[in-house]
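Worked problem 6 (solution included).
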Amino acid sequence: MNNKFSITDINRVVLVGKNEYTEKIISFSNNNYCHNELIYHISGKAVVVFNGQHLETTEDTIRFLPAGEINEYTVERIERGECIDIVFDTNISIADEAFILKVKQSEKIKNLFKKIFAVWVAKGDGYYFECVSIIYKIFAELQRNNYIPEKQFLAIKPAIDYIKKNFLNKKITTEELASCCKISYPYIKKLFVKKFGIPPIKYSIQLKINYACDLLKLNLYTLSQIAEICGYNNLYFFSRQFKEYMGISPTDYINKYKSSK
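Solution. The predicted structure is:
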């Protein structure tokens, strides 16, 4: 998803109610899709087919549809629900294809969609500029929380699961991650950086350091024991890597934790 676009126009903001469409399957036949759409699904369930992509929308998901030529766009309703649809234009393409984002438990994003609808309908002084501002806030929140399209997340999920299962008991290699995902490691690395802000190997190290922090707080083990539990054969290397990731040594960390209680 391109994150350096500018919003050039807002066409409309609408609330689509549960009884808006009576048909179970709705077909949209415009050959040229003139605007982007960002749709928050408040409730309900549907299967969307957009240019050959099958996208499943459920409660608390966001569907993005890019502007451009379309060959097929249908919505098959599984359960009736409501959604808020923002139709807008940008100076450059946000993404080449449609995607779904799962944003469960994100009240902030849901409230931003509700707010833009309320502001758009009220049309008070400065409403248009406030709506533009809210759209930017929605994308900022999506980026801040490292949301990536579900298709991309599923592509790296085997690697995430593999790392979580093995980060304490073995040195994880790039070849292993590529093998369990069945895609190239450079692509895995790219998606990890989009999702977590760091490559897979650093992600596995971060899990180790997080686990070490939890053990330090328990005050049940020596530093040497914690290093060994976390897969380090060398206490000096463990302490150096801990400081690299946490900014302080393990000893300073536990002292700060004790003084804060």
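Discussion: DSSP finds nine helices and eleven strands in the chain.
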